C-alpha cells in the first residue's frame, strides 16, 4: 500500500468521524453555493421580466405628462370613447353575469350528453383570434348573415351599431366569467348543498342562500375580468361594429384612430386603460386572496 494512503483499519473512531465531518462540510458548502447560484439566476430572471413589462408602462406615463393628459381629457374623441366604452362594458358585464351564472352552475354540478363539447365551445372565444371572431359575428348577424338576413327583412340591423359592440364584447368576454364562475361553484362543498336540500330547501332557495354566498367572491372576480376584457376589446368590434365616433368607437378603437393624427389623445386614452387595468388586477387579487383565506378557515 502506498505510503500516502490512509489505512482505514488503523484509524480510530475519532479520526473516522473527523474525516466524515470534513466530507459533509465540503458537500454542505457545495450545496450552499449551488443554492446561491440558483437564487441569483432566478432573481436576475425576475428583474429582467419585471423590467420588460414595466418599461413600456413607465414610458407611456413619461411620454404624456399629467397636464397634457388632463388637457386631452376634454377632447370630444376621448369623452365619447370613454362614455361609450363604460356604457357598453357595463351592459356587457350585466348580460354575461345573468346569462353565464346558470350556465356555469349547470356545468359545475351536472353531467349531460355533450358536456365536453359545450364546455369547449364556451371556451373557444378565449383562443379564437379577435379578427376571426369579428368576421364570424358579421357572417351570423350582418345584413347578409345567417340570422341577420331574416332580421333585415323586419328592418332590424345589428352590424355597425352600438348593439353590435355589445354583442362582440359578450362573445369575447363571456368565457372569462363562465370559467371563473364554474370553478367557484365547483369549490363549494356539495355536502352543504345536500344538507340544505335535506332540510327542505328547494334547489332555487339552496342556490341563492347557500351556494351563492359562498361563491360570491369568485363570481365578482369573474365579472371584473369580463368587464376588463370587454373594455379592451378591439378586433371583433372593429370587424363587426365598425369605428364610428360616438356610436361604435370604443377606447381601443379611438387609440387606433388617434394614432394617425393626435398622439396626445391616444396616449391619454391608453393611460386611462392602463389605470383601469391596474385597478382590475388589484380587485381580482384581493378577492382571490379572500377566497383562499375563507377556504383555509
UniProtKB/TrEMBL annotation:
Entry's family note: Belongs to the binding-protein-dependent transport system permease family.
TM region(s), chain numbering: 42-62, 82-108, 120-141, 153-172, 207-228, 263-284
Protein name, per record: Molybdate ABC transporter, permease protein
NCBIfam families, A to Z: Mo_ABC_porter, modB_ABC
Pfam families: BPD_transp_1
Keyword vocabulary terms for this entry: Membrane, Molybdenum, Sulfate transport, Transmembrane, Transmembrane helix, Transport
UniProt-listed PANTHER family: SULFATE TRANSPORT SYSTEM PERMEASE PROTEIN, SULFATE TRANSPORT SYSTEM PERMEASE PROTEIN CYST
ABC transmembrane type-1 domain boundaries: 82-284
Gene3D superfamilies, A to Z: MetI-like (1.10.3720.10)
InterPro entries xrefs: MetI-like, MetI-like_sf, ModB_ABC, NifC_ABC_porter, Sulph_transpt2
Organism listed in the record: Methanothrix soehngenii (strain ATCC 5969 / DSM 3671 / JCM 10134 / NBRC 103675 / OCM 69 / GP-6)
Gene Ontology CC terms: plasma membrane
Phosphoprotein listed as a keyword: no
Gene: modB
GO molecular function, one term: ABC-type sulfate transporter activity
The UniProt record lists the keyword Chloroplast: no
Bilayer topology: Multi-pass membrane protein
Subcellular localization, as worded in the UniProt entry: Cell membrane; Membrane
Main location: membrane
Amino acid at each position: 500500500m502506498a505510503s500516502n494512503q490512509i489505512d482505514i483499519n488503523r484509524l480510530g473512531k475519532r479520526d473516522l468521524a473527523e474525516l466524515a465531518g470534513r466530507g459533509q462540510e465540503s458537500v454542505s458548502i457545495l450545496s450552499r453555493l449551488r443554492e446561491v447560484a440558483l437564487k441569483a439566476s432566478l432573481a436576475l430572471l425576475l428583474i429582467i421580466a419585471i423590467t420588460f413589462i414595466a418599461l413600456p408602462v413607465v414610458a407611456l406615463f413619461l411620454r404624456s405628462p399629467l397636464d397634457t393628459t388632463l388637457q386631452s381629457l376634454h377632447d370630444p374623441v376621448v369623452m365619447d370613447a370613454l362614455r361609450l366604452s363604460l356604457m357598453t362594458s357595463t351592459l356587457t358585464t350585466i348580460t354575461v353575469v345573468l346569462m353565464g351564472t346558470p350556465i356555469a352552475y349547470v356545468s359545475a354540478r351536472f353531467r349531460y350528453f355533450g358536456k365536453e363539447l359545450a364546455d369547449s365551445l364556451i371556451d373557444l372565444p378565449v383562443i379564437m383570434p379577435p379578427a376571426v371572431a369579428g368576421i364570424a359575428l358579421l357572417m351570423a348577424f350582418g345584413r347578409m348573415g345567417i340570422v341577420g338576413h331574416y332580421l333585415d327583412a323586419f328592418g332590424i340591423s345589428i352590424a355597425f351599431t352600438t348593439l353590435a359592440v355589445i354583442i362582440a364584447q359578450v362573445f369575447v368576454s363571456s368565457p372569462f366569467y363562465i370559467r371563473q364562475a364554474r370553478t367557484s361553484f365547483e369549490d363549494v362543498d356539495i355536502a352543504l348543498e345536500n344538507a340544505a336540500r335535506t332540510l327542505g330547501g328547494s334547489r332555487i332557495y339552496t342556490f341563492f342562500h347557500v351556494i351563492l354566498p359562498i361563491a360570491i367572491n369568485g363570481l365578482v372576480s369573474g365579472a371584473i375580468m369580463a368587464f376588463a376584457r370587454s373594455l379592451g376589446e378591439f378586433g371583433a368590434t372593429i370587424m363587426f361594429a365598425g369605428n364610428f365616433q360616438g356610436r361604435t368607437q370604443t377606447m381601443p378603437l379611438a387609440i387606433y384612430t388617434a394614432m394617425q393624427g393626435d398622439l396626445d389623445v391616444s396616449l391619454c386614452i391608453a393611460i386611462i386603460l392602463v389605470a383601469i387595468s391596474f385597478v382590475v388586477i388589484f380587485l381580482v387579487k384581493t378577492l382571490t386572496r379572500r377566497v383562499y383565506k375563507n377556504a383555509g378557515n
